[in-house]
Amino acid sequence: MEFVVLGSGTSTGVPSVACECVTCTSTDPRDKRLRTSLLVKSSTTTLVIDTSMDFRQQMLRNMVLDLHGVVFTHHHFDHIGGFDDIRPYNFRSEAPMPVYALQETIGVLKSTFPYAFGLVEPTGPSVPSIAPHVIDTDPFMVGDIELLPIPMGHGQAMRVNGYRIGGMAYCTDTNFIPPSSMDLLKDLDVLIIDGLRWERHPTHFTVSEALNIVSIVRPKIAYLTHIAHQLKHAETEARLPPYVNLAYDNLIFKL
User: Which H helix or E strand runs over 181?
Assistant: First the structure.
């Protein structure tokens, strides 16, 4: 199984528009962060977790010709904004794209992209063709890849899903992982977890909070993602434990 971090940045991306901070003006390629998403590939199946606003660019950059499913963590726009660019995969496969998401996320996709679900008359000849699948807490398959949902909190009122795939868990956009979900993070080879910045935030883990989760579940290696421009890659890495790193765009690992 191969995993590719397509984007490691927060909702504004890094560099951020209208900013001249040391990270946004950095020449280190690891400080260039598209919006957060993950590519997962087995020998027969390729899926993506979230269609970020940079989805098209991410697919082109990684030469993803075939896509067998899209899995959503939640419905904030930086995670669904590239949804319309599913269309070229419909052209290639001549089949609807399987989409897996919480019921609320399916509802927001319908209200944001109603033409893709036949809810309004399309304004052009080409619209995404979607086969929606509502998921909750039960494991599900995309091709030969099994995903186990990990219920988490994103702020006080919003449910989001992390996902465990074999020895890897992907837990972006969260500031609360309940005890029952912490149990799903045991015996991990790799944990990718939200670590926005050092300063507190109402809906995201800080670096220190993420490190606390890492110290409890003790994966072999951990990567922080959904990174804001307050974190310069090299300077932050120097402050992290040896088995914890900042994720960066196009990071690839295999399990």
Answer: helix 179-182
**Cα separation of the two ends of the chain:** 5
Alpha carbon 27 to chain centroid, angstroms? 25
For CA atoms 163, 203, 82, 137, the dihedral sign is: positive
Residue 120: DSSP 8-state: S
What is the reported pTM? 0.98
What ranges make up the beta strands (E) of the chain?
2-7, 37-41, 46-49, 69-71, 97-101, 130-134, 140-142, 145-153, 159-165, 168-171, 190-194, 221-225, 244-246, 251-254
For residue 159 the two structure tokens come to 């449910």
Structural Rg of the chain based on CA atoms: 18
131-161 pLDDT tens trace:
999 999 999 999 999 999 999 999 999 999 9
- Among candidate residues 26, 68, 22, the one with its CA nearest the CA of residue 49: 68
* Distance between CA atoms of residues 90 and 11, nearest Å: 27
What class has domain 2-254?
Answer: alpha beta
Question: Per-residue pLDDT tens for 69-122?
Answer: 999 999 999 999 999 999 999 999 999 999 999 999 999 999 999 999 999 988
Distance, CA of 113 to CA of 239 (rounded, Å): 42
Residues in the chain: 255
Tokens of 170: 């992907």
CA distance 59 to 183: 33
Q: Could you state, in order of their start, the residue ranges of all structural domains in the chain?
A: 2-254
